[in-house]
Amino acid sequence: MPSLDAIWENYICTGELSREEIVHLLELEDNGEQARLLNLADRVRRENLGDEVHLRGIIEFSNYCVRDCLYCGIRRSNRKLVRYRMTPDEIVATAAQAVAMGFKTVVLQSGDDFYYTGPMIAEIIRAVKEMGVAVTVSAGERPRTDYVQWREAGADRYLLKFETSDAALYNRLHPGTSLDRRLRYLRDLRELGYQLGSGNMVGLPGQTPATLADDILLMGSLQLEMAGIGPFLPHPATPLQGTDPGTMSMTLKVLAIARLLMPRAHLPATTALGSVNVDGRRAGLLAGANVLMLNLTPLEYRSLYEIYPAKAEIRTEPARLKAEAEELIHSLGRQVSTGYGHGYLHEATNVNLSLATEKPPHWACLARGSGSEGRG
Ligand code: SAH
């Protein structure tokens, strides 16, 4: 049985963790050991990204969805849900408010809603880009031509979570589609030059430490520039009602290990984590996270974007949310970033991809004076 110390020793010189080591870390039960793991992730975050926390403003512009994901409250089969669509003008006006409040990134998220054509969303992106901010789109699986148009319109990033790397489980949870297909979309998005965001849910029924380890390894091999890691929260109007939710402690372990394997990726302390526990986001920021996503959906719609129940931030005005986030960040002795917070493969304008993808020299190993060992 490897010890946390032995795993860490090896990690600081190689930058790597084996599947077996990840499983071992996920299975840490002892509170003291768990706390040490989260602390190490916090240290890796600080050494690689410093103390800045990036705020992203998210606008959930439609809760219509053609998909029927078994876990999701806005799935097509949920007939009880009141559906809404924001008009392009409303979306752009909401983005303008976000920009006026100082947000440097606007995230446009929705169900997979084909009411909005490729050109319609491209127009929205163009209007938001004119305001001088970074734009992340998270509108699900679309034809490649839409992704091309949106990128041409200026979209910087795309967020499409793979949810689980267990193909059988993925296929069960997502009727009519497959993990292969999801991964193909992710490859397309990377090819088109998007900063790539993906991620998983923690605590899905049928998930095991081994499949969670595979999730983390997949995030690493996709070279994600952003990974959203949140607990699964059962929704009463879905087939997964009554199953157990993901726990805060397992989610924090997954987040911490993801930080070790992806030292420079943007990792949010997710809203879902903040929904499972009032201190969830603080805990996430102390376990490797460096991003907070704040919900700027107009209040009249916000409670209807109910992907899971009891979502945090459901009634708080944007200005208040931002003030609370700033307070949290300052209370940790950290600062709100004033930059765009681009992905590590895209942060310089004339980025040399081969250099950017090389792992940064390992600080702790260098500090021990053994920098030439184990790095080839
Ligand atoms: N249609 C878009 C956006 C989906 S909603 C897409 O497919 O990418 C955004 C995220 O909410 C999903 O990727 C999923 O990880 C999360 N989510 C959905 N239902 C959830 C639940 N019951 N518990 C926790 N997270 C959930």
Task: Tell me about this structure.
This protein is of the alpha/beta class and 376 residues long. The protein has one domain (4-367): Aldolase class I (TIM Barrel). It is 42% helix and 12% strand. It has 16 helices and 8 strands. The chain has helices at 4-14, 19-26, 31-49, 88-100, 118-129, 144-152, 167-173, 179-191, 209-221, 248-261, 271-276, 280-285, 299-302, 318-331, 353-357, 363-367; strands at residues 52-62, 105-110, 134-138, 157-159, 195-202, 226-231, 291-295, 335-336. Strand 5, helix 9 (209-221) and strand 6 (226-231) form a beta-alpha-beta unit. The radius of gyration is 20 Å and the shape is globular. The model is unreliable at 349-358 and 369-376 (pLDDT under 50). The structure holds S-adenosyl-L-homocysteine. The site of S-adenosyl-L-homocysteine has 18 residues, from loops.
